[in-house]
Amino acid sequence: MSLKKEFDNLKFDVRMQDINLGNKMISSDDIKNNLSSLQDCSHNATQISIDEPTEEAVQEVAHEEQQQVTTQGPMMGNFNSNPFGSGNNN
């Protein structure tokens, strides 16, 4: 497919609307007409519900993550040690 056809396919894409409006490739009326010409596909949608975690659950996970960090040892080495490996910790 040619680049022009690709741009034509994306002319009314919401990610491109501001650019196309700025370049005067489309007008606000063109967008309104395009939106009104789209068919209603709401019958194809499925409604889902996502429960928000409780504050206690969030705190518990944060505590568990903190425990993993402290029990697994330092990720970047011991900050009290000499970074050059001489064994002198002062």
Written overview of the protein:
- The protein has 90 residues and is mostly helical.
- The chain has a domain at 3-38.
- It is 44% helix and 0% strand.
- It contains four helices and no strands.
- It has helices at residues 3-9, 17-22, 28-37, 55-71.
- The longest helix has 17 residues, at 55-71.
- The protein is elongated and about 65 Å long.
- The protein starts with a helix and ends in a 19-residue tail after the last helix.
The overall pLDDT, averaged over residues, is 82
Oligomer: single chain
Largest sheet: none
Instruction: Detail the poorly predicted runs.
Output: none
Estimate the global geometry from the Cα principal axes: elongated
Terminal CA distance: 67 Å
**Estimated helix fraction:** 40-55%
Strand content: under 5%
Structural class: mainly alpha
- Total DSSP E strands: 0
Global Rg: 28 Å
DSSP helical segment count: 4
- Helix/strand order, N-terminal first: HHHH
Topology:
Layout: H1 3-9, H2 17-22, H3 28-37, H4 55-71
Please name the defining characteristics of this protein.
mainly alpha; elongated
Overview in brief:
By secondary structure, this protein is mainly alpha-helical. It has helices at residues 3-9, 17-22, 28-37, 55-71.
